């Protein structure tokens, strides 16, 4: 397994030997929230097989001596492809601290972030029927995220030249309603 830097303080990410799966540690509250929405998630993925949501393969817990309980999820890896990946983006709709500028200047193949995309002036276009299907799928996924009260979601973009893949991620945090 290979470790990957992750922007959150509470998480570590690892990929499987052939990079088909990602393993990410999560806080116990996210594991509980995922368990709570699991039946609806399964129905959504079955109903919309082209969902852009992560493909969860499992949620697990290990008890490690000297460490305690470690919760983690296994998802399929959207970056697992036989195509060359020219750029990767993790887009959250925020600009605060959302750049990989330093890593990119150092020549590291870093995941670009919101400010990097904004600064580049790049635009990604999806045309014709693919555009309609894409926008329809995003709407279905957002409707699901609203239904389960997901507090935040963001996009990951993979650019392989003429092809592009987008995945919607979510942190399953309960939304508190204030009156």
What brief labels describe this structure?
179 residues, alpha+beta, Phosphatidylinositol Phosphate Kinase Iibeta, Chain: A, domain 2, five-stranded antiparallel beta sheet, globular, disordered C terminus
Structural write-up:
The protein contains four helices and nine strands, in the order βββαβββαβααββ. It has helices spanning 28-47, 101-105, 114-120, 128-147; strands at residues 2-4, 13-15, 21-26, 56-64, 68-76, 87-91, 112-113, 152-160, 163-171. The longest helix has 20 residues, at 28-47. The relative contact order is 0.17. Residues 1-10 and 170-179 have low confidence and may be disordered.
Structural class: alpha+beta
Percentage of helical residues? Answer: 25-40%
Count of alpha and pi helical runs: 4
Quick one: how many beta strands? Answer: 9
**Architecture in CATH?**
2-Layer Sandwich
Strand order within the widest sheet? 1-2-3-5-4
Major sheet description: 5 strands, antiparallel
State Rg: 17 Å
Number of domains: 1
Q: In CATH's first tier, which class applies?
A: Alpha Beta
Average the pLDDT over all residues and give the rounded result.
75
């Amino acid at each position: 397994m290979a470790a990957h830097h992750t922007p959150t303080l509470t998480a570590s990410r690892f990929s499987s030997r052939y990079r088909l799966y990602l393993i990410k540690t999560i806080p116990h509250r996210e594991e509980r929230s995922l368990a709570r929405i699991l039946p609806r998630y399964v129905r959504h993925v079955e109903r919309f097989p082209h969902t852009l949501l992560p493909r969860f393969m499992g949620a697990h817990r290990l008890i490690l001596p000297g460490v305690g309980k470690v919760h983690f999820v296994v998802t399929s890896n959207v970056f697992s492809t036989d195509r060359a990946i020219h750029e990767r983006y993790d887009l959250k709709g925020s600009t605060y601290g959302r750049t990989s500028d330093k890593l990119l200047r150092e020549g590291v193949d870093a995941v670009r972030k919101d400010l990097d995309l904004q600064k580049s002036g790049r635009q990604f276009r999806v045309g014709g029927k693919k555009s309609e299907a894409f926008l329809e799928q995003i709407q279905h996924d957002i409707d699901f995220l609203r239904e389960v009260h997901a507090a935040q979601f963001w996009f990951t973009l993979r650019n392989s030249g003429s092809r592009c893949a987008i995945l919607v991620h979510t942190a399953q945090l309960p939304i508190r309603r204030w009156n």
